[in-house]
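Notes continue from the previous slide.

Worked example: a multi-chain complex. Inputs as given:
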Amino acid sequence: MSIAHLDGLNEVQLRAAQHPPHVPLQILAGPGSGKTKVLTSRIVHLINVHAISASNICAVTFTNKAALEMRTRLGRMLDKEHVRQIKMGTFHALCAQFLRRYATLVGISGNFTVCDADESKKIVGKMLKEPDLKEFLKRCSITLSEGTISSRISQAKAKGLSPHDLLDSFHASSHTSSKGKVKEKSFFALTTEHLEHELKSCNIKETIDFVVANLYANYELILRDHNALDFDDLLVYGVRLFSENPQVGRWCTHVLVDEFQDTNNVQYELMRSLAAASRSITVVGDPDQSIYGWRSAEVENLAKMRRDFAATQQIFLEDNYRSTGSILAVSVAIVAQDKSRIQKTLHATHPQGPQPTLHCFPSDRVESSAIAGEIKRVVAHMGGTLGYDDCAILLRYNSLSRVFESAFRKEGVPTRILGGQRFFERAEVKDVLAYLQIVDNPAYAPAFARVINVPQRGIGQKTIAELLTVAGKKGLSPLEVVERIHGGRIPDIKPPIKRKVAEFVHVLKDMRKLALKGLSPANLIRRFLDLVQYQEYLEKTQEDADSRWRNVQELITFASEMESELGAQSFDVDVEDTKAAQEDDYWQDREEDEYDDEELDDLGFAEVKPRDDKQARKGTESRDAAANTPLRAFLQASMLSTDTGQSSEDDKDKQKVTITTCHAAKGLEWPVVFIPVVEEGVFPSARAEDPEEERRLLYVACTRAQALLYLTHASSRMMAGETVSKRLSEFVSVLPGVPPPVGIPDSAALFSSSPPELSKAEITTLAKVLHRATPDAAEVQKRVAELNRVGKSSFWTADPESTYNTGFSSAASWNKGT
Ligand code: ATP
Ligand code: MG
């Protein structure tokens, strides 16, 4: 019997790992205290010491990535076959697996399709188009988007509420008996008049609740008809399966749950029914790290578990093995601001280490390139002890990644995006760019195929394929074909599609004229968003509409930056090009609704002044009306931004800096962590409902750091194309011992305003914290010399000419942020 899996655990961790299998256990502890480590050791202990079959163990993690991580850790302690047999994954994955096998027990068929969030929204969208319902909502002046309905349905499911539960609570709170009648009939069988009559005593909120409940009921019928389950259903049916059929769960007798503080009601029920008979249940969690309240997670589940499983024991781990003392002190000082929080003990086992840095930069661009430079410096000074893959940038929103991706590319620092896509690969960014590409080059078929149906115009893949075939046969561009449909010259298309196509043509035509007039790309994007009502489209169709909208705004920022960077030279417009526009093949025989300068002013767009030089005259020689326009320069820059400079295969092993969001970083750790944009409106997010949850999010982010932690912000930042002044986040500026940083004597108690010195002593400490060999002095010298040679050596120190020196400098820069 091997007990190697217990090696190195401290006394309390040992107790937790060896806790008797059938006594319910909660391991509650702060970040980095080894909760996940103990959970993994406990799994091995159950198998190796208690001789429990691996297939009877069910380990639930919060993300697929976490499951993979746990599998890797287990792979070091168990043989492959055992690891394979353990049921490990997210709650959703676990349910899907069991439902496939035991579908009939809950009255569904095993070949169900999992319907993703997009599909669910489409179903809701269709229901909202029911004429009677539309008419009814119109008369009541109620606007309901697909997004709102979908998330209300999802919230109800997460709470385990059926459509009947919603209707019942509606009737319970109603004062009129007439509502009872409504209940008896199907909502969709009622005419508008009926509804109005029945609901006349309801206020708007009650009416909306009623509509939501009924749409929910109908949505369920549709999913049933399609033999489909949405994500929430996987959990709902999973709970039903396990609670009504205890024999199914008998294989999952030992349940272990990581990140328990972020489970919702249904997930809790699932776990409860699985472990009901065996009572072999272990959960680990930290209320201070609950950051998914916005997704209906309930930290109260900890108390609920103690009620449901009598004699649940608790073990508290109090030693942090992840971070240096000073990083832990900063993190705890941040979360301790939450007065309602229960204080806990968390000791650092590591030395104090260099102080975390908190610094204000004059602008977002200086901030991002300073961070890229600092990463190079740290990697060089640690002489092979640290690589790029030891560094992470943790962002509050994923839209903030654009500036960092760009700065890192410029500095030649390789990056990877964890749990998401690179900025220029995101669907909404590609949609907007595709419109601009057609405006620039109407013959560009890929862009055409991408966006003819964005926003939805009811044009199916088949029609798009036909249009492209016709274009090929006739030697026309897809857009010309579409134009001809619009002009009635291609007869076989149904009138509603014609109308939709006309809309598409109108948008492009409008944009093209403005582009040829020299409207800047930033304004062109704004115009586009307005014309197609892109934000409404996102809200109706995307669950994460906010995040996508922020990405679109960030694209405007990028366009504005390009304008100022390339300046007048590239962003001026050729007079002759504008003339050429009038000869432009694609638009010449259409109605004459050119914009004149006054109209441009009316639209609130500043026009770029025409240029008068040799290049302008060259424009006349070109048939390409859009040559050298600001738009083309912008598109080219965007396309080049997709080139990461890192090529495919050989790149797999290459060390890369991780860029990710604070949410996605949960449970993970890196030696060097940067948290930029620690500003008002970001921490807490301007749209956050619960500021305390935002504070905990910053705490989660800070506690990912092992050796070096940097918090930064900028006193001015470009947002949606406008430069705005920004202030340091109050989560940091009101830290005890860290009053508003300017000139306050003890501001250095927790943070330093300059980067770590990286003296020999500091480097030795860091190597110790990371359990790595102290770097060889000669190697350090070589790397620093190399850095000097390529011109970035002066990063924090001497060279007054260095742009980076505008960054971390003196206490004076604190003024800007506070
Ligand atoms: P989080 O709350 O952030 O998920 P956690 O409590 O799950 O953190 P782990 O990720 O399990 O913490 O552990 C943090 C780090 O500390 C890991 O690198 C782990 O290997 C290390 N660690 C945990 N316990 C010990 C120990 N007894 N001795 C040495 N290192 C340890
Ligand atoms: Mg963990």
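Summary box: The two ends are 61 Å apart (CA to CA). The mean pLDDT is 80.
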